[in-house]
Amino acid sequence: MLDESLFPPSARFCYVKTSRREPDLQNFRHLHPLEQALVSHSVDIRKAEFGDARWCAHQALRDLGLTGEQPILRGERGMPLWPSTVTGSLTHTEGFRAAVVAPRRHVRSMGLDAEPAEPLPEGVVGSIARVGEFAQLERFRENGMTCADRLLFCAKEATYKAWFPMTQRWLGFEQAEIDLREDGTFISYLLVRPTPVPFIDGRWMLRDGYVIASAAVV
Questions:
Q1: Of 12, 64, 131, 151, whose CB count within 10 A is highest?
Q2: Is there a single domain that holds both residue 120 and residue 97?
Q3: In its UniProt record, which GO terms are filed under biological process (predicted)?
Q4: 21 is in an annotated binding site
């Protein structure tokens, strides 16, 4: 479902598809106790999402040649705390979880987001889209993409996930202007100052009922 075209060449990724109805806690139960403790008071659905995404992260770390045994804890605003030599990102949504990691010597920061390939609930797009982005959404809809607004949302979420580890600062939906392209790429122009980079490159795909967006600073 995911494929390497979404990510820089040095990245490694893992994903799982799950039941949308019954939470499966198998991966959660095999996590390090410190990881389990992060969501110990959550409902089973949340534990399953968390456990699956962390399991994916450990598998991806192993593919980088790391043991995957070190717990991935949580930093400011829920940011995953990766080993010092690694950057990465996690995502989970209904029926799908994934993680991507890469060596910091090749990739400075990454973001990954996945959502069901469905239109956003009524009224939501007005709270996430900048004026200049509406024309892009209309163009995508005219070409048959009914979930273009969801794609924009994913691109902004992936952008934020790549931005925050570099800055430790919030990035609002209105603070990035997304240039969506029909070739499966996008550019996020950052409208805040100071900023470590003026823009962040991204890629997107529609696959098996999901919209998936990744962003990377190399």
A1: 151
A2: no
A3: enterobactin biosynthetic process
A4: no
**Residue range of the domain that includes 36:** 4-107
Has 114 been labeled as part of a binding site?
A: yes
Tens digits of residue pLDDT in 75-110:
998 999 999 999 999 999 999 999 999 999 999 999
Is 74 part of any known ligand binding site?
no
Shared domain check, 89 and 15: yes
Number of Cβ within 10 Å of residue 131's Cβ equals 8
Question: Is 182 annotated in some ligand binding site?
Answer: no
- Annotated binding residue at 115? yes
- CATH number, domain at 150? 3.90.470.20
Helix H or strand E segment including 163: helix 148-167
pLDDT at 46 over 90: yes
Its pTM surpasses 0.90: yes
CA proximity to 7, closest of 218, 217, 216, 212:
216
Instruction: Please indicate, yes or no, whether residues 26 and 44 belong to a single structural domain of this protein.
Output: yes
Number of folded domains in the chain? 2
Q: In what order do the strands lie in the sheet with 86-93?
A: 12-17, 96-103, 86-93
62 labelled ligand-binding: no
Residues 6 or more apart whose Cβ sits within 8 Å of residue 216: 7, 8, 11, 102, 107, 109, 110, 111, 162, 200, 201, 202
Between the alpha carbon of residue 109 and those of residues 45, 105, 132, 215, 218, the distances in Å are 28, 10, 26, 8, 7
- Is 3 annotated to bind a ligand? Reply is no
Tell me the pLDDT tens digit for each residue of 114-144: 999 999 999 999 999 999 999 999 999 999 9
**3-state secondary structure at position 64:** coil
Q: Which of 54, 75, 107 is the last residue of a domain?
A: 107
